[in-house]
Amino acid sequence: MHRILFVCLGNICRSPLAEGILRRQAKEAGIALVVDSAGTGDWHIGQLPDRRAVRVGIAHGCQMSMTARQVGSRDFEEFDLILGMDLRNVQDLCAWPGAKPEKVRLTRSFDADATTQEVPDPYYGDTRDFEAVADMLETACRGVLASLSHP
């Protein structure tokens, strides 16, 4: 069974949305996966996702009751694929103690039609920004699932 970890800065906006979307898509496709999310920072540990992320995630059919946590060295052992939302996340992950850079990629690298490889942080935006991020993640997560079927 594949194990996938999504990572953003605080684990309250982008990565929980990605976690919820990939879980939903995998369930719909009948694919067994372990999916989790984390942040490179520790500011929001134990908190629920941002209320806007929850609202948009639920509108996309996702369960959004996960709690924020910080990435740890053990994640590089436990997960097959660690997907950062932006270049800073990927750089931070590759510099993490115990990092396995070969497991780290940008989330949107799984979207062949993406005009940019980064998922922008919607935290300082409004609901429309969260909806745009969710749409990007829907496409990227479909690409992740396709890559698992055709490595």
Structural account:
The protein has 151 residues and is of the alpha/beta class. The chain has one domain (2-149): Response regulator (Rossmann fold, 3-Layer(aba) Sandwich). The protein has helices spanning 14-29, 51-59, 75-78, 87-94, 127-149, and strands at residues 2-8, 33-39, 81-84, 104-106. Helix 4 (87-94) links the parallel strand 3 (81-84) and strand 4 (104-106). Helix 1 (14-29) runs parallel beside helix 2 (51-59). The model has no long low-confidence stretch (mean pLDDT 97).
Please give the order of strands in the largest beta sheet.
2-1-3-4
Structural class: alpha/beta
Give the strand tally.
4
Number of helices: 5
SSE arrangement, N to C: EHEHHEHEH
Return Rg in Å.
14 Å
CATH architecture descriptor name: 3-Layer(aba) Sandwich
- Give the CATH level 1 class: Alpha Beta
- Count up the domains: 1
Residue-averaged pLDDT = 97
| Beta-strand proportion | 5-15%
Largest sheet: 4 strands, parallel
**Residue runs with pLDDT of under 50 for 5 or more positions:** none
For CATH, the homologous superfamily is named as Response regulator
Classify the helix fraction into a percent range: 25-40%
Q: Which term fits the overall shape?
A: globular
End-to-end C-alpha gap:
14 Å
